[in-house]
């Protein structure tokens, strides 16, 4: 993934720490043999979207469609915690104290993940949950090219209903949603319809609600998210990389429209043909 790691735009203040974390960038800078110039690489996209919007779902579907890894920073943290990696001890202390994981640790985990992927011949990525802050966005810009940032949006009353409808099966851990949403679109946009995702019969009597899926907590989560993400959105908007995408409904309504917006309709046709075959 030669195009992934780039040295020319490294911020000088970050150069030394970046070289520690991105050995390949340092090697290229020090005149290492240029990688075979197979400049054909997979997409390098970022997914933004507030909690509950479903960006993990869309990122994961696109990841299979485009054959690029879906890298969710939440998973990186969980994997490191579950491993005996160098950061696992430090991380478990932070998590046990209920503190936020710092930009440095997240960047460290992400760069390790990208370097491992590169070593395995991965090409491209879909980042999910990163960058979360303007500082993370700036650091990321110094080390890799981002082609496109997809900002998934859902109006607040729909998000709220969706989050309040979430249910988990206490036995098998399955995720369901009992909300049947039919809400008037804001600003002249079409109405938003989302079918519930009902549990199978064996789970129906075992459903529980997550303790933090209350109206108060969901609204607070959205407020904090918007406060943090607006500068990140602006950062990419000013670089002409932000694609705003208003989800028109649930997955059946949104998926084809998202593919259209990304000029991936052809992929979708292929996908349909391979399903039909
Ligand atoms: Zn179940």
TrEMBL record:
Keyword Transport among record annotations: no
EC number: 2.7.4.3
UniProt key word Transferase: yes
Catalyzed reaction equations: AMP + ATP = 2 ADP
One annotated GO molecular function: AMP kinase activity
Taxonomy, superkingdom: Eukaryota
Xref: Pfam families: ADK
Keywords assigned by UniProt, alphabetized: Kinase, Nucleotide-binding, Transferase
Transmembrane segments: none
Family: Belongs to the adenylate kinase family.
Name this polypeptide is given: adenylate kinase
Protein species of origin: Iris pallida (Sweet iris)
